[in-house]
Amino acid sequence: MKYIIMNLKNKIVSFFENIKNRIMPFIMKNKLIASAIAVILFVVILVAIISCSTKGTENTIGNLNNLGFSVKSGIWIYYLGYNEGNADGIYKVKENGNKKEKVSDSYGYYLNESGSYIYYLDSEESNLVRIKKNGEKKEIVVTDVDYAKITISDNWIYYFKNSNLYRVKTNGEEKQKISNKSIENYEVIGNWIYYSYYNDGEYIIAKMKTNGENISKINSQAGKVFFVDGNNIYYINENYDEEQAITTYQLNKMNKNGENKEKIIDIFGKVDVNTINFDGKYIYYAKLNEDNEFGIYKIKSNGDNETKIVDIKGYATSINIHENWIYYPDQNENGDIEIYRIKTNGKDKQTL
Predict the structure, then answer these.
(1) Ranges 36-50, 65-79, 279-293, 318-332: which has the least confidence
(2) For residue 332, how many other CB atoms are within 10 A of its CB?
(3) 197 exposed, middle or buried (CB, 10 Å; 0-12, 13-18, 19+)?
(4) What end-to-end distance do the CA atoms of the chain give, in Å?
(5) I need a labelling partner for 221 at 20 to 30 A (CA). Which of 96, 107, 253, 287 fits?
């Protein structure tokens, strides 16, 4: 992104530099016009850079792997809300926790945001739908899809139907079948899709173009859970020790071409691999410790400083991360499910 922004800036500056050279003799005759043009040039460049750098990320792969029950849009967090332990709609709340309000009575998972819409899988009808961010104008984009992760990138929605990976424009047009492989996990990075699938007892990580072409295998002994970060892929292998009857979870990394594989650390305890999330610096997960207590933990991507963030009352949760906050469902004192949030440093636990 930094390269794109800088390249855009250079092109804009070069364009206006040419204009300046052509009209400089006229400008020098009138200092007022010169000042006005200078201000206009600055504003145009600034707006172009800001508009490029603030493009929405729709949602992160880590959040979507954790059911995508929340998504950030500007200063708002949209999330699946509960009432007396039952999911009852999509809500929004400001990042500072203020102005909570219900957006829609319909609800679902795998929330994404794009333009003026929130996209999600409707829990009651298994349709891929969208609603305006003010809760109005609910529309069906694709009917009868698989209840699995959806991802939005560059105005395309990626989704599963009959276990095959498809994509469709955010307006519901140009539906395309991309792959018929039994894909476990995937991440869209630019013009590429990195994905994992199970074959002959191993999880394989591969990549293909976003249109399904140019398939190439990256690693044939990787885990189904992985994250692409810069030039590296982080992934987790589950290793079962038959002698001791215990499972360890090995954090590894490799280059995006599959080379320079490196074990980072063994993570001990019963990790729920479905909760693993990643923010570029830390890997987050829920696990049972030696005392059989369930909690949310984090560890640096280099394997240092495993830290417990918060205890969990239930035995199932999901972890969504927005800025410096972790959002997660858990049981309250009455045993009902609610959405909580806590700072990534373990402070300021709140109920939404």
Answers:
(1) 36-50
(2) 14
(3) middle
(4) 33
(5) 287
